[in-house]
Amino acid sequence: MNTLARFRACWAWSIRTLLFTACCLLLPLSSYGQQNKLTVSPPGQITVKRGGTVTQKLKVSVLPGFHVNSDKPKDEFLIPLKLTWQTGPLEAGTTTYPKPEDIKVGNDMLAVFTGSFTIETSFRARESAAPGPAIMTGRLRYQACNNQMCFRPASVDVRLPVSIE
Predict the structure, then answer these.
(1) pLDDT over 80 (residue 3)
(2) Which candidate, 155, 162, 145, 90, places its Cα nearest to that of 122?
């Protein structure tokens, strides 16, 4: 192998190593921006009789320094907080969100949730529901922001243990 070929091989290896190292070092920085700004406490099991109704309270916490848009944001371009439930052994009824707080960001007034709050959903068990344990799955979609920027919309999966009697 001549000197030029050795130089090219070494240079190509050096560039690949440099790119790999840069990716490894910068990856944690990019994941910080995608870190969940909102957490959902695992819900406790609910018990309901066939044909009966029950209300479930979901506890949600937003990290300090952040807020999430309310379920009814004041600007049509903002992503609302929304809890949805998949079809399962229970029928999801109305979902009730807390009263949002109004904050001023720049020149705009926003309806947001901060800190800890509770979302309530009413469920009804079908008369034909099989008795025993089951799981209801849901998803809480939100867009978190701080006073400088909003982050990409995100979702948190929710698993609700159910006991049907």
Answers:
(1) no
(2) 90
